[in-house]
Amino acid sequence: MILDSDDLDRLEQRYRAAFANSLTGFKPANLVGTHGAGGDNLAIMSSAVHLGSSPFLLALVLRPDEARQHTLENIRETGFYTLNHVHESFFRAAHQTAARYPREVSEFAAVGLTAHRVGDFPAPFVAQARVRMGLALREHQRLAINGTHLLIGEVVLVDVPDDAVEDDGSVDIAAAGTVTISGLDRYHRAETLDRLPYAKPGG
Amino acid sequence: MILDSDDLDRLEQRYRAAFANSLTGFKPANLVGTHGAGGDNLAIMSSAVHLGSSPFLLALVLRPDEARQHTLENIRETGFYTLNHVHESFFRAAHQTAARYPREVSEFAAVGLTAHRVGDFPAPFVAQARVRMGLALREHQRLAINGTHLLIGEVVLVDVPDDAVEDDGSVDIAAAGTVTISGLDRYHRAETLDRLPYAKPGG
Fold first, then answer.
1. Which chain B residue lies closest to A177 (C-alpha atoms)?
2. For A29-40, what is each residue's pLDDT tens digit?
3. What CATH number does the domain containing B136 carry?
4. Most buried among A120, A184, B85, B169, by the most CB within 10 A?
5. Which residue out of A12, A182, A185, A191 would a mutagenesis test of the B interface target, given it has the greatest number of B Cβ atoms within 10 Å?
6. ipTM exceeding 0.85?
């Protein structure tokens, strides 16, 4: 089916959200850990995007909705947050962090995950995660076009299993059990098709 | 292994790029189609991120490198571009679009894909793709922090197989054969673990 702007405008709101969220493609599944006045907080997010390797920067897009508000407040208050890859063994618990718990409830306890501290890093990591990063907030802007928040963070700490890192620095996250999300609520395991060489004309 | 900022700074450039690009998690695999002075252009990108459903907005992050420069120029000149999901049947051809072809070479011809027009939409779609979107550029900013380009586009056309859209509007892109990328060069098929209900406290 082909839908133009008018067709898209006419879609019912929930239908449209499910449709639009499916069309970007597969998304990363990360749990964002923060600490603030309400204690530790944990929220699943599928909007992480790589901005650059030197410095090592990631962006997160946050919708201005209630459920993620505590995460945003904590990041702005402390300047620090963690990203933890969702592993196949706990994707159901990770999804459950999207429920609208009151601020004083720690999603860690509510969903059965464990907070893990690394040194004096101010935000909690997820003990059950195999791939974890600590970030420092570098820039926050609210996009005028629709009010979403763009948070740019520098990765200042990486905690990853030795055996997951290959000789060239790449990390086989499929082998590490990291999952991917499509749409609002589908979780997938990744099965590797191939690793391809650097592309050159005539190649 | 745990790496802090100093450890990360000391990584050799290529190692660091492979490492950092692996850590965001799984990424969407899209071919971006444009038309400009050099003819049709096609470039693989893994940086699409959902910004909102109403209006239906997607962002793309483009590094300021040569290979993608023609895509950026074409989008800025014409204001239109397409996103085409990379299907398992042509992920090798899709990867090959990353080679640095001269501007007058069409990546469609060079890699063996076919340009497909929908109505009078100014940018080419990929005939072999099953899920396709046409976008109008709404905002372009260069991020001061590292010079990357953030392009925000509104989806004004969607072309998707009838049988891929479910009753609630969600699209089963795993069943549609869309692939996902990890790191710089790994391609994966997605195997669905489950679809989870809307999360509620106590759920």
1. B25
2. 999 999 998 899
3. 2.30.110.10
4. B85
5. A182
6. yes
